[in-house]
Amino acid sequence: MSAAEAWERVTDWSAHAAGVPLTRARTVTPGPPGLGSRFVVRTGVGRLGVDDPMEVVRWEPPSAGRPGVCRLAKRGRVVLGRAEITVYAEGSGARVVWEEALRLRGLPRLFDPALRRAGRLLFGRALAGVLAEEARAQDI
Protein backbone atom coordinates (compact mmCIF):
# COMPACT_ATOMS: atom_id res chain seq x y z
CA MET A 1 0.00 0.00 0.00
CA SER A 2 1.39 3.41 -0.96
CA ALA A 3 1.80 6.30 1.48
CA ALA A 4 -1.10 8.11 -0.21
CA GLU A 5 -3.35 5.05 0.20
CA ALA A 6 -2.30 4.58 3.84
CA TRP A 7 -2.99 8.27 4.50
CA GLU A 8 -6.46 8.00 3.02
CA ARG A 9 -7.24 4.97 5.18
CA VAL A 10 -5.90 6.33 8.49
CA THR A 11 -7.74 9.63 8.04
CA ASP A 12 -11.09 7.93 7.36
CA TRP A 13 -12.37 8.55 10.90
CA SER A 14 -15.46 6.36 10.64
CA ALA A 15 -13.28 3.35 9.73
CA HIS A 16 -11.34 3.58 13.01
CA ALA A 17 -14.19 2.25 15.10
CA ALA A 18 -14.78 -0.77 12.86
CA GLY A 19 -12.01 -2.87 14.41
CA VAL A 20 -12.67 -1.98 18.05
CA PRO A 21 -15.53 -3.64 19.97
CA LEU A 22 -18.20 -1.37 21.50
CA THR A 23 -16.88 1.64 19.58
CA ARG A 24 -18.40 3.84 16.92
CA ALA A 25 -17.39 7.10 15.28
CA ARG A 26 -19.39 9.93 13.80
CA THR A 27 -18.21 12.91 11.83
CA VAL A 28 -19.33 16.29 13.10
CA THR A 29 -17.90 18.39 10.28
CA PRO A 30 -19.34 17.78 6.79
CA GLY A 31 -17.07 17.19 3.83
CA PRO A 32 -13.76 15.42 3.38
CA PRO A 33 -11.30 15.22 6.28
CA GLY A 34 -8.85 18.09 6.66
CA LEU A 35 -7.70 20.90 8.91
CA GLY A 36 -10.51 21.82 11.30
CA SER A 37 -12.46 18.58 10.80
CA ARG A 38 -14.19 17.34 13.95
CA PHE A 39 -15.44 13.90 14.87
CA VAL A 40 -16.45 11.93 17.96
CA VAL A 41 -15.48 8.39 18.87
CA ARG A 42 -17.80 6.79 21.43
CA THR A 43 -16.74 3.69 23.35
CA GLY A 44 -19.24 1.87 25.54
CA VAL A 45 -22.81 0.62 25.59
CA GLY A 46 -25.75 2.98 25.91
CA ARG A 47 -25.28 5.46 28.72
CA LEU A 48 -22.26 3.51 29.99
CA GLY A 49 -19.70 4.96 27.65
CA VAL A 50 -17.38 7.83 27.01
CA ASP A 51 -17.17 10.27 24.10
CA ASP A 52 -13.79 11.25 22.68
CA PRO A 53 -14.38 14.40 20.58
CA MET A 54 -11.41 15.34 18.41
CA GLU A 55 -10.41 18.10 16.03
CA VAL A 56 -7.77 17.99 13.29
CA VAL A 57 -5.28 20.74 14.19
CA ARG A 58 -2.50 19.80 11.74
CA TRP A 59 -3.09 18.37 8.28
CA GLU A 60 -0.16 17.72 5.95
CA PRO A 61 -0.79 14.86 3.50
CA PRO A 62 2.31 12.97 2.34
CA SER A 63 4.10 14.36 -0.69
CA ALA A 64 7.32 13.61 -2.53
CA GLY A 65 10.10 13.40 0.04
CA ARG A 66 7.89 14.41 2.99
CA PRO A 67 5.83 12.26 5.37
CA GLY A 68 2.18 13.00 6.02
CA VAL A 69 1.29 14.30 9.49
CA CYS A 70 -2.13 14.59 11.07
CA ARG A 71 -2.45 15.89 14.64
CA LEU A 72 -5.68 15.51 16.56
CA ALA A 73 -6.58 17.52 19.65
CA LYS A 74 -8.85 15.68 22.08
CA ARG A 75 -11.52 18.14 23.17
CA GLY A 76 -13.66 16.09 25.55
CA ARG A 77 -14.91 16.56 29.08
CA VAL A 78 -13.34 13.21 30.05
CA VAL A 79 -10.72 12.35 27.42
CA LEU A 80 -7.94 14.91 26.99
CA GLY A 81 -4.66 15.02 25.11
CA ARG A 82 -3.57 14.61 21.53
CA ALA A 83 -2.83 12.02 18.87
CA GLU A 84 -0.43 12.31 15.96
CA ILE A 85 -0.46 10.03 12.93
CA THR A 86 2.58 10.08 10.64
CA VAL A 87 2.68 8.25 7.32
CA TYR A 88 6.13 7.61 5.83
CA ALA A 89 6.76 6.41 2.28
CA GLU A 90 9.08 3.41 2.31
CA GLY A 91 9.94 2.13 -1.14
CA SER A 92 6.65 1.26 -2.82
CA GLY A 93 4.94 0.88 0.58
CA ALA A 94 4.30 2.91 3.70
CA ARG A 95 4.97 2.90 7.43
CA VAL A 96 2.40 4.41 9.80
CA VAL A 97 3.31 5.70 13.27
CA TRP A 98 0.58 6.60 15.76
CA GLU A 99 1.56 8.52 18.89
CA GLU A 100 -0.98 9.20 21.61
CA ALA A 101 -0.75 11.43 24.69
CA LEU A 102 -3.89 10.59 26.59
CA ARG A 103 -5.33 11.77 29.92
CA LEU A 104 -8.62 11.03 31.58
CA ARG A 105 -9.98 13.90 33.64
CA GLY A 106 -10.10 12.98 37.31
CA LEU A 107 -7.84 9.93 36.98
CA PRO A 108 -4.71 10.26 39.14
CA ARG A 109 -1.38 10.16 37.27
CA LEU A 110 -0.64 6.95 39.17
CA PHE A 111 -2.78 5.23 36.52
CA ASP A 112 -0.88 6.73 33.53
CA PRO A 113 1.18 3.56 32.81
CA ALA A 114 -1.95 1.37 32.73
CA LEU A 115 -3.74 3.95 30.59
CA ARG A 116 -0.78 4.02 28.15
CA ARG A 117 -0.83 0.21 27.83
CA ALA A 118 -4.60 0.14 27.29
CA GLY A 119 -4.33 2.96 24.73
CA ARG A 120 -1.54 1.18 22.87
CA LEU A 121 -3.71 -1.94 22.62
CA LEU A 122 -6.87 -0.06 21.61
CA PHE A 123 -5.25 2.32 19.10
CA GLY A 124 -3.01 -0.43 17.72
CA ARG A 125 -6.06 -2.58 17.09
CA ALA A 126 -7.91 0.29 15.39
CA LEU A 127 -4.92 1.11 13.18
CA ALA A 128 -4.33 -2.54 12.24
CA GLY A 129 -8.01 -2.91 11.36
CA VAL A 130 -8.02 0.18 9.15
CA LEU A 131 -4.89 -0.88 7.28
CA ALA A 132 -5.91 -4.57 7.04
CA GLU A 133 -9.28 -3.60 5.58
CA GLU A 134 -7.45 -1.81 2.79
CA ALA A 135 -5.23 -4.85 2.21
CA ARG A 136 -8.31 -7.11 1.98
CA ALA A 137 -9.95 -4.73 -0.49
CA GLN A 138 -6.87 -4.85 -2.72
CA ASP A 139 -6.92 -8.68 -2.72
CA ILE A 140 -10.41 -8.75 -4.25
UniProtKB/TrEMBL annotation:
InterPro entries named in the record: START-like_dom_sf
Recorded superkingdom: Bacteria
Protein name as annotated: Polyketide cyclase
Lineage of producing organism: Bacteria, Bacillati, Actinomycetota, Actinomycetes, Kitasatosporales
